[in-house]
Amino acid sequence: MEKINCQPDVNTCNSLINCYGKNGDANEAHMRFKEMQETGLNSDVMTYSTLIECISKTSKVSFLNIVTYNILLDCLPKCAKTTEVLEFYVKLKQQRLTPDSITYVVLEQSESRNLKHNPIIGWE
Which family does it belong to (predicted)? Predict the structure, then answer.
C-alpha cells in the first residue's frame, strides 16, 4: 500500500492482523501490530480482541513472556472474554513461565469480576 502512497488505517491493519491470526501465524500478526504502533495508528478494541483470539489459537508464539501474559490476562475480562483467563493461565504454566505478584493480582481482579475458575486447577 505504501508503494502507491496509500497509508493503511486501523481497519486495514485489523484486517491484516485478523488474516494472519486465522492463518495461525501469531508472530506475523504481532509484527503487523508493532508496525501499526510505530506508524502512530491507535489500536482499538477490535485490534486487541483479534490479537487475543489469534494468540489463544496457537502455541507457536515467540513473543510471549510473563509481562505479555499479565497484560493479556488483564485485557481478557475487559474484552468480555473472562472464560479465557484460566486457559491463558494454564498456557503460561505450560510454557514454564513463573507467575509473579502482578499475575496473581490480575487473577484476583478477574475473580472479583465474577469469574468462576476451576477449583481443581485453581491458580496454583
Answer: Belongs to the PPR family. P subfamily.
